[in-house]
Structure formats: structure tokens, C-alpha cells
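#lab-general

N.A. 3:47 PM
ok so I finally got the sequence cleaned up, no stray characters, all 177 residues accounted for. can someone with queue access submit it? mine expired

B.Y. 3:52 PM
send it over

N.A. 3:53 PM
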Amino acid sequence: MLTSFAIVLRIVPLTETSLIIHWLTKNHGLIKTVAKGARRKQSQFAGNVDLFVTASIAWRVARRGDLHTLCEVAECEYREPLRHQYTTLLLASYCSQLLESALEAEPSDVGPYELLERLLNYLLYHTANLKAMLHFEKELAKLLGIYHPDIGAIQVLSEYIGHVPRARSQLLDSLRT
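B.Y. 4:20 PM
back already:
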């Protein structure tokens, strides 16, 4: 069994009672886990698994494939204020999508985890803004070793991952209004 601090990036229903949860872990990079029975009222995961929650998790590594089994979750930081403003939630969602698209499965360094954690904590006390979005893109490009000062960060990221998450255009429209 492996353990790490992790941030919930995405939650997808699997069955009537189970979920697939995408995590960015501090020590193991991107992982996907199945949380069996998580949609039941008496589940041990109830209330501890939501978007952008930072938690201490334990999982059993899959024998085949990349869908591991979630065993334990202890919530550390819920970040409920992120849900109060649409633009803030949109910025957090876009940055997590961009990060997930850019990272290979299970990188060894902790830089991406710390970058996302800094953004989420910033958004707890500040309004979403264009400067925060551009800073995140630039720092991600630097972490990946693809940043070039003469080329915009989003351009090099787009070439690196092959696309830009659709949420970016929605975010830009929301930030302008």
C-alpha cells in the first residue's frame, strides 16, 4: 500500500456506488483510483472526496493497468470557498485540466503538486484574475522545461500537449466581464 498527500483533480462515476478519482499526489504524480462504495451514504469516503480537496490518501497498487484501489482518505483541506464564485472555480478547473494534460503519469518530482497547491490556496483569498492564470501557465512551462521567454507559455504548452483545454476560452470570457 502506498500513501501520499494528494489533490482531487477529477471525479467520474464508475457504477451506481463507485467513483473513479483522479489525484495529483505529492510523491507519485498523477494517479487514478477507484473508490468502491463512495456514493453510498455510509461510505468512509463520504465528505472527504470533492474537487480540489487536499487529503492524505492510501491506495493499493493495481496488478494490471493504472486504476488503483483507494483504501483510506483523511481530509486535510476542503477549500470550500473556491465554490462561491464561478470564475474562481473555472480558473481552478482550467489549471487542473492543463496540469493533468501536460504531465506524464507518475512523474517523480513534487513541483506540479506544489504549483497547483499554491494556486488553490491563492484563490481562497483572492479573486480569479488573468495574471494568476498566466503565471500558472508560465510556471508549468518552466517546470516542464519547455518555457521560452520569447514565446508565450500557452503556445509552448499547446505544442507540448497538442491542445489547450476548452475551459481556457470560457475562462478568458469570464475574466473579461
